[in-house]
Amino acid sequence: MYNKDLVKKCQNRLFDMALVVRNILEEANIPYFITYGTLLGAVRHKGFIPWDDDFDYYLFADRYDDALDALRKNLPDDMFLEWYDSEPNYFHAWARVKDLNSVVENTMFPQDMAYKHRGLNVDLYITNLIKESEHQQYLAKQHFAYIERRRKLNLISEEDYQNRLRKIKPVLEVSQENKSQEDKSERQIYAFMSVYNGDFLYPEELFPLKKYEFEGEQFCGPNNADIFLKRCYGDYMQFPPEEKRMPHNENVKFLK
Q: Are 71 and 24 in contact (CB under 8 A)?
């Protein structure tokens, strides 16, 4: 079972960080929306899932650089924008805002221990507008780039690298072979850049963004949260088995 007091302390800190990020983005007129467990928490709990200890935003690719610039200029001293220009071992495909007053311990993701800053983080995922017919190739390319970055940094075992490569290589090869016979569908989707899934939303499902209550504050989210959460979690109003109600982090030490 998770340590409820520790998770609550993590949530309080993450919520403070999420508010800072939200306020900076809104002040700079940069659109964003909450996603994954954060969106599920807003819909099902009007706040954090009781055992959750992270916070997820999505930003749009065409404004991503603007968002990072705004955050660099305005984040307080106890937060750090983790990206390729600030972390030499960075291998994720999206930036993260890190807490400088906590240290996370997590053996599930040992590669993250290569980062200088190991505090609680707010994820800043990227969504790209692409053709629906290009989705599978897009995901395969993103995954390939991810494992290549980790390999160059010696942050993935050769066995894990080869296992992942075997899964995505057929998609890349088939896509290349069929390029001349590519599906001509022009329907577009917002593809969600994440290593672990192929979630997406059609523009009419995402827009117009609307506000969701989260811990008494308002955050932007997709217009049709129901369809997104069903794609991610199935019957998302049903709680998972008790043994799966676990936080992401095994332990968190607070420095202040």
A: yes
